[in-house]
Amino acid sequence: MSAFTVAVVRYEEPGRSVRRAVEMCRGLDHLPARTKVFIKPNIVFWTRSVPFPKWGVITTTRVVEDVVLLLKERGIDAVTIGEGTVTMAPGDTETAAHAFETLGYGALTRRYGVKCLNVFERPFAPVDLGDGLKSVSTRMRWKATSSSIFRF
Fold it and tell me: Can you say whether residue 34 is alpha, beta or left, with left for phi > 0 and alpha for psi between -120 and 50 degrees?
């Protein structure tokens, strides 16, 4: 298994903290311009019933925006923010749309041209995870697998 470099930085200032962490671990150095990137911000659960805590539970929109800005600086315009949010009712697409809008992803779409995707609205495609995981096959949603990188 390959070794990865990790950087831990306290988030103190928009634009600078994420940049520092990414630069310290050279996190985007291998990405060529014009590649496709899929960002999964970890919206594991969302509800429209009560106010939901956003800090310490999910990756904040500020951090996602900082990553989008770093990608744009490198000439990467094909950015998709995607999530498969768990809801109380299977097939509920309104809650995911509510989460995206409440978190400000619509503003990121308008401001930077990123796409937002509820992965449960797309078909599955098989993916071979390769060695290190004993060539186990799993199923990932098509948009993530059509990106040049889909881990962050």
Answer: left
Contacts of 7 (CB under 8 A, 6+ apart): 20, 21, 22, 24, 25, 27
Beta bridge partners of 115: 80
pTM value?
A: 0.78
Model confidence pLDDT, tens digit, residues 17-48: 999 999 999 999 988 888 999 998 888 778 77
SS (H, E, C) 124-147: EEEEECCCCCCCCEEEEEHHHHCC
Q: Do the Cβ atoms of 39 and 27 come closer than 8 Å?
A: no
Angle at 89 between CA 88 and CA 95, to 5 degrees: 75
* b/e per residue 90-110 (b: at least 16 CB within 10 A): eebeebbbbbbeebebeebee
Q: Which residues pair with 124 in a beta bridge?
A: 141
